[in-house]
Amino acid sequence: MANFDDLLTSIPTEEPAPQLSKEEYAAKKKAEREEVFAQSDQTALEVAGDGGKFAQFLDLQARLDRYSAVNALLTFAKDPGASRLGSFDYWKRQNCSVKPGQTAIAILEPQEYTKDDGTPGMGYAVRKVFDISQVDTRKLRNAPPHHYTERQILGALISKYPMKIIGVDDLPDNLGAMTSPDGDILVRKGMEFSDTFRAVAYEMAGAELATDPQLSPEQEFCAYSATYLLCRKYGVETREFNFDKVGGVFDGMDAQEIKGELAQIRDAAENISGRMERQLEAQQRTAKNQNVR
Predict the structure, then answer these.
(1) Fewest beta carbons less than 10 Å away: which of 82, 105, 250, 277?
(2) Range of the domain at 187
(3) Which pLDDT belongs to residue 146?
């Protein structure tokens, strides 16, 4: 009879990790968060001082439009070309696996906790994610992408807007669109799709950002940037955009202020695109019901 007693004793190849106390664990997590926050600060300063990097950042934010500006900055620092993020478990649920040797991207996730006095609080936890480029996707089943016509996209932009949108024959200074004192958007007739989309989206973004009747230079730039985000999301021509003057806009701002501006850009675009998505989804449901009949 074979004897396997020699296999019953093994020597560990390395020392097991020491068990951390509650205080040590909390200190470790705090240091982790501080490192991630510092990374977002550094990246904010970098993109705010370089027009090319700023445009690259907006491209990434357009692809990751559901992520906050801070998490877009953290992703940009590690992989400016990222397009779809997920945790290790997320990719596993998609029948995919993270490729060997990949370095995770650290982002921040809101997390509720209980304070020492028993009241609820809200903080942030570091979450590790991987871009789809870091994943073996041979078994991934993707839903077919939606393709919308220019008419559908422009219709979704205009539909359900709370103020009137009025076509006019001419506008001062050859403007494509402008907002009237009553809040209505006047749009010059006869323009091509891209020009019409950009002009109307800019006025809508300005309305999202406005705190006074007259936009400040910073708000104008934010509206311009939010329009760029919307164009990138919906495949509208962006060659006319130029961010070479970004450094002057953010000059004198610290990292927190810059992140605040980036958040406003993202939120303004998201508010508009959220309404657009609801309209496009409604169009799809209508078309589907008609096909069934």
Answers:
(1) 277
(2) 150-292
(3) 80
